[in-house]
User: Fold this.
Amino acid sequence: MTVSDDRSRVSRDAESILLPLDDGDIHVCQEGPRDAPALLLVHGSAASGRSWDAMVPLLAGSHRVIRIDLLGHGRSAKPAGPSYATVDQARRVGAALDLLGVGRATVVGHSSGGAVATALAEQRPDLVTALVLINTGPGMDAFIASESAAISPAQWPPTNEQIRQFAGSGFSRPGYEVPRTILDEMRMMTHHTLVTTMRGTTEYLQQRRLPDRLAVLGKPLLVIFGADDRRWRSSSAADYRAVPGARIELLPEVGHTPILEDPDRTAALLLTFTRGR
Assistant:
């Protein structure tokens, strides 16, 4: 059976729920058989669980797929008081999985979601069985500064054009049609949650590079990188070779967001990695 054939095998038992946590409600979606291996998908900055829409039909035939909206994103709460540091976002993810009764999961993070996945593995090594990082820069030295104009609080909520300029480098080529879901999800955020979440990722990467964090955890690791990433140097994917046994895959003609630009190839790599775990 091919990956594309799995589109027709998605379980009808889909569920969208709000989980009550101390800092605010966390929204999660579950698809696929509940007795299948758990696969947790963590989105990047200014996104939500909906960024995985094209991937889920390819994964839910063989996995219990769990998508989470991090605090401040999507349909989760957006309070002004709590910390949006990466370690606190990871702590909430672990608490959400506890409420769902998930004891073990392969955790997949896109972009800054990979930093949250790494922090979760540091905090809960018993929970995280393996990690997949998709276009997650290993450290701030790999970051490509963007020329897009920052959005000030006075300009919030941003216009579609402002969001397109902000999100444009997330795809392989200039002029790529930014999906409507990204426009909608970013507008649902507050300026505070956007800025503080991005700052939290930067601080986490500055404190210690991800390959150094992962090398001591002993977790199976798959790194997928779009070769034409315009946010992180794709050559920096090689830095993850410092992690014993790490598998690194570069996708040609794909940018920062393989989960939208090429979901079939991305899912195929992910399923091969998870098979038998």
